[in-house]
Design a protein that fits this description.
It is a single chain. The chain is α/β, with parallel strands linked by helices and about 280 residues long. The protein has nine helices and 14 strands. The strands form four sheets. The chain has a six-stranded mixed beta sheet with strand order 10-11-12-5-13-14, sandwiched between helices. It has a four-stranded antiparallel beta sheet with strand order 4-3-6-7, covered by helices on one side. Strands 1-2 form a two-stranded antiparallel ribbon. The longest helix has 16 residues, at about 210-225. It is globular, with a radius of gyration of 19 Å. The N and C termini lie far apart (about 40 Å).
């Protein structure tokens, strides 16, 4: 559930989804919300991921950095099974996304309907905005809550308005995507993901197609989400953002986690020479 957003009974009670409310971050718990366990991914003869494992706890922000082609976006897509891992497993609150265990203890692949049911708790924001051009801003935000979660239009609209307020776009509620800037469209995409009330938000280089001014608009929203305790996994080339907002930073190289740790360690005293060389290009 998105922090401060509750649905009870036939109506919706929307509280606390506004920027600047000064909420404390949620405590990081012992049991991971996301567990990535020895993920490998091949595309034919090309092995893109070579055994990646890590945990993400509730309320934490994990940033993945690294050169293009290092496997970051593929890893993010494996986490929500937009790409099916060749081997390994992803667990959401202890439940494996890609398989179930039968009474005899054997693994069997989950039906796609079950995978879709589980991954609706993973909000995804892509590089491209992927908004429906024939729908208004509000229509884009409320479509999935109604169709996937089965909410009434009244409840979905209440949630949608709260999410648009959260990204500072409530005044654009009746506009169509073509009339919005790129930064505004990406903020609508964030509101659309939030409206599904996911347990984890996944960002795949959400600012890569934006100019610097519009990039900052989107990063401000992401900072607010992090400050409000939203669990986030972020693929980014925005090193200042990763350094300021993350609880943990992972540097990927050639399909593996070359280095990881708190941002002050990874950015301040990286042990990996490749990580140092990569950061020198961005930090000078």
């Amino acid at each position: 559930m998105i922090r401060g957003l509750q649905i009870a009974g036939p109506g919706t009670n929307v509280r606390g989804l506004q920027s600047g409310m000064g909420m404390a971050s949620q405590p990081i718990t012992d049991a991971p919300t996301i567990r990535v366990e020895d993920i490998h991914k091949r595309f034919g003869a090309l092995e893109v991921l070579k055994g990646v494992s890590f945990d993400v706890h509730r309320g934490s922000v994990v940033s993945m950095i690294g050169a293009s082609g290092s496997g970051k976006s593929t890893l993010l897509r494996c986490i929500n099974h937009l790409e099916v891992p060749t081997s390994g497993a992803v667990y959401l609150d202890g439940v494996p996304l890609g398989f179930a265990v039968d009474a005899a203890g054997s693994r069997r692949p989950r039906p796609l309907a079950d995978v879709n049911r589980l991954r609706r708790d993973l909000g995804m924001v892509f590089q491209q905005f992927n908004l429906w051009p024939h729908m208004t801003v509000l229509g884009n935000v409320i479509e999935a809550p109604m169709r996937v979660r089965g909410l009434s239009r009244r409840d979905a609209t209440a949630i949608g308005e709260a999410c648009l307020r959260r990204v500072q776009l409530l005044d654009k509620i009746g506009e169509y995507p073509a009339r919005l800037s790129g930064g505004q469209q990406q903020r609508v995409a964030i509101a659309r993901a939030l409206a599904m009330q996911p347990k984890v938000m996944l960002f795949d280089e959400a600012t890569s197609s934006l100019d610097p001014e519009l990039t900052e608009e989107v990063l401000m929203v992401m900072r607010d989400l992090a400050n409000d305790g939203t669990t986030m996994i972020v693929v980014t080339h925005e090193m200042r953002f990763a350094r300021e907002v993350s609880d943990r930073v992972m540097f990927l190289h050639n399909g593996t986690i070359e280095e990881q740790g708190p941002p002050e360690q990874v950015f301040g005293a990286p042990a990996s020479e490749r990580c140092r060389q990569f950061l020198s290009k961005y930090l000078g």
